[in-house]
User: Fold this.
Amino acid sequence: MSHQEMVDYASELANEWLAQSLSDRIAAAENTEQDT
Assistant:
């Protein structure tokens, strides 16, 4: 695996993780708003 391939792979993983983290945060925020 070339260095560029590793960079691309890491970026892809980071993007997936960020998207998941963001959607979790939005869901948690919505749940908090509903509770009040």
Summary: The chain has one helix and no strands. The helical segments are 3-35.
